[in-house]
Design goal:
The chain has no helices and 37 strands. It has a domain at 197-257. A hairpin with a 5-residue loop joins strand 10 (97-101) and strand 11. With 334 residues, it is mainly beta.
Length: 334
């Protein structure tokens, strides 16, 4: 499959909207810069994430904590792992178990979960007592089930995987669609891309009906478009709307979803699989860039890897180095 289902890098989802401060890579450490690159918080952290709900997740000395926009430690780095703030709390791991802390560092969710992701639409995927399900923000009720995986909610439904197949549950834990799909993605703008058997198409959020579209691959529907690959395109991908109409031509080697008006795409496979002198591993050589919704190149094809934009920022890799860029392509590293 030439279409990327989610992102190309593991990255926490940042809050929507422009960032006042951007994670800045310098000398193997991370700090924060203002838009345009002026350093505001010194590069002294081992890892740094974009700000979410006014606080940023950082790692120092192998532990995770949170700082404010003045660089002050609001929640000291004492956690084994953590995620971004969402709906008033951030998942954090201590002594092998997950909970959720508020902006003061107090436990908003007890540390009794084996897994916990950020809240979205009032629910968070969680695992407790070996069972996966949804943890409700209101009342902290855990709706466990016999699931192999539970994913974040979108438009009132959360994907679940059972016996290798995907379905959807609502936020009360009730089954909305049985796990019959070979592939399924989150709902966005009233539709979700899915594969039923060997047929690709879209599920309508209103009717929950699946409608086949004539493609050999369809990726997540986002911002009114989905990456897709027709049989006759000979391995090339482009973008379609929910009716299956071609919107952007099938000229790319690989395609990912639109977010923030931009989508990461790989122009040619020939640009890939060139060994880096630094580590000798096979990696891309400037193959990834970004296009806008008209198909125009917004950020040139020069990255080894390129994640989707979140909160006006995207994480990229070039020549083995990871850093962030903004929507204009400005690179935040020294």
């Amino acid at each position: 499959m030439k279409i990327l289902s989610l992102t190309l890098l593991l990255a926490c989802r940042a809050a929507a909207g422009a960032q006042d401060l951007v994670p800045y890579s310098s000398g193997g450490k991370w700090g924060y810069a203002a838009p345009g690159g002026k350093l505001k918080i010194p590069a002294r952290y081992d890892h740094a994430e974009p700000f979410s709900e006014g606080l940023a997740l950082v790692r120092a000395g192998g532990k995770y904590g949170f700082i404010d926009k003045a660089g002050k430690k609001v929640i000291p780095p004492v956690y084994q792992s953590a995620g971004p703030f969402s709906e008033g709390c951030a998942p954090a791991k201590a002594r092998g178990l997950w909970g959720c802390v508020d902006r003061t560092g107090a436990a908003a969710v007890p540390f009794e979960y084996e897994e916990l992701l950020p809240f979205r639409e009032g629910a968070a995927p969680a695992k407790k007592g070996g069972r996966r399900g949804l943890l409700l923000r209101a009342g902290l009720e855990f709706l466990g089930g016999d699931y192999e995986e539970v994913y974040p909610a979108g438009e009132g439904l959360a994907r679940v995987r059972v016996n290798g197949r995907y379905g959807y549950i609502d936020l009360s834990g009730k089954e909305a669609l049985p796990p019959v799909y070979a592939e399924a993605f989150p709902f966005d703008g009233g539709f979700a891309a899915a594969r039923l058997g060997d047929k690709y198409g879209f599920i309508d959020r209103r009717t929950l009906a699946f409608k086949e579209r004539p493609y050999v691959s369809i990726g997540p529907y986002s911002g009114g478009l989905a990456p897709a690959q027709p049989l006759e395109a000979e391995g090339r991908c482009g973008y379609i709307d929910q009716e299956g109409r071609e919107v952007l031509p099938f000229v790319f080697a690989m395609c990912a979803s639109f977010d923030g008006g931009l989508a990461p795409v790989l122009k040619d496979f020939e640009a890939m699989l060139v060994p880096h002198k630094a580590n000798g591993h096979q990696a891309a050589k400037g193959g990834w860039g970004y296009i806008d919704r008209t198909g125009k190149v917004a950020i040139e094809f020069k990255y080894d890897q390129a994640a989707g934009f979140r909160g006006g920022l995207a994480r990229v890799v070039r020549k083995g180095r990871t850093f962030y860029i903004d929507g204009k392509g400005f690179e935040y590293f020294k």
